[in-house]
């Protein structure tokens, strides 16, 4: 019997053959990465004097690699913080029904607050938190990048938690998993595919606001941190078109390198978490991931840290089992709802009173009406952008997501286009508009689209790629006509992902209006009429009452649009179109 059992191949026999050369490559790559992180991070904690702080940085091209590395480190720190925030916030909103009523509207508001609104409030606080050190300004910059990444990821992961099959919930109960075990063994794997794609898109969103996060202009003060975003800002102020083009070239190289070394392996690895009954015969590939799989190092790390899993699981059982009571007495539930509602209403009334009192005693309520009119103009730009982006990118996203061979070629291109900070092109667009005498009023919509349209494309690609292969094979066997194929299979299948992308694209468009409605090149400043330009000018001059009015009005537009339009589509997606 033993000999017969040994005649069958073990699990190791099915693995890829290991290679010493792969071990060398992985070891050297890890060593180089650690050395770069240590070298670059040393510049984040240097003496800093607020009175004599630099307002711009050197535009010497020889410093561009160092600037790019500093920006990249900030981006990855912000991404790590965004992932932690996503896990905690989305899990709380999905597992605590009463808290969800407050957390989701709060997330809508947070998404609607422009990055300059966060900077105007947080810069002084972070500098005071680390007196005499540049770490405070670094934290303010990282926090600003975080605010451009976290909301999209949180929405996507929250939706994946809500659309989990009931069988997974029942299995977690029957196996009596702890909350910790359910999170890591059920929630994270089931939401990994959309989370990876939206993290990649959010990373691109962080690039878009990098200039504002590194060349900070708030409260009549300017601060500049070494980075490729501040390099572009300084080159633009000097009207150095050649240096702007050089920064664009470095940015393209960096984005392509990130795609090859990081995002492509991650997206291919995330394919293992797709839930379907049949698998595509032509799956995506990654040379870097293949190299890691051929190396002994991941296995060695697994043998070192693997024994820690059981003790950690035991320690985390203190948080309780992954179950909630299936029946709660109606009287107790109503009493808890009343108490929760009263507390939330009291907090809202208190905050609204003080906010309106401050506005009334400073700029007056007539300023709100003026900002509402400007918000209506920006709203028109946002709606036009969403219509055009939907018409263009939904068919293209479906085509890319359903064809692995096309995905292999198109995904790097899409990632480069989406990750590339479009506002790096704004100075060049400004130069063209100045030379031709054209208006920014119509070009502002195009500039906003450069930063927001990719949310729709990436979510549609992710939704199309997640369509179970067995459904696609069934549609092919039934020989559905093309129109019926779109109506009955593709559009319903991608609808939840599209709604998630469209919500984030709308919020991104509002945020992008701040940098798209005011374009500077040298001594020239082009301004388009709109709420984004209003907030940008108020932030630059340190006009706190008008900053508050602008942020309040923008939040009202975004939250109102979400509540009365997008949330209805979101509920429809959860109710009828979750796979």
What characteristics describe this protein?
3% strand; mainly alpha; 579 residues; disordered N terminus; two-stranded antiparallel ribbon; two-stranded antiparallel sheet; 24 helices
Brief sketch in words of this structure:
The chain has helices spanning 2-6, 20-41, 64-95, 97-112, 115-129, 135-147, 150-162, 166-174, 179-208, 210-214, 228-237, 241-270, 287-293, 297-305, 309-316, 330-362, 366-402, 404-419, 426-436, 440-465, 469-477, 482-516, 531-541, 544-576, and strands at 215-218, 221-224, 518-521, 524-527. With 579 residues, it is an all-alpha fold.
Task: Please count the beta strands (DSSP E, at least 2 residues each).
Answer: 4
- Average pLDDT metric: 81
**Poorly predicted spans:** 1-11
Lateral strand order in the biggest sheet: 1-2
Largest beta sheet, briefly?
A: 2 strands, antiparallel
Q: Kindly estimate the percentage of residues that lie in beta strands according to DSSP.
A: under 5%
Measured as a percent range, the helix fraction is: over 70%
| Count of alpha and pi helical runs | 24
Global outline: globular
CA-atom Rg in angstroms: 25 Å
Run of helices and strands = HHHHHHHHHHEEHHHHHHHHHHHHEEHH
Structural class: mainly alpha
Task: Give the end-to-end Cα distance, rounded to a whole number of Å.
Answer: 45 Å
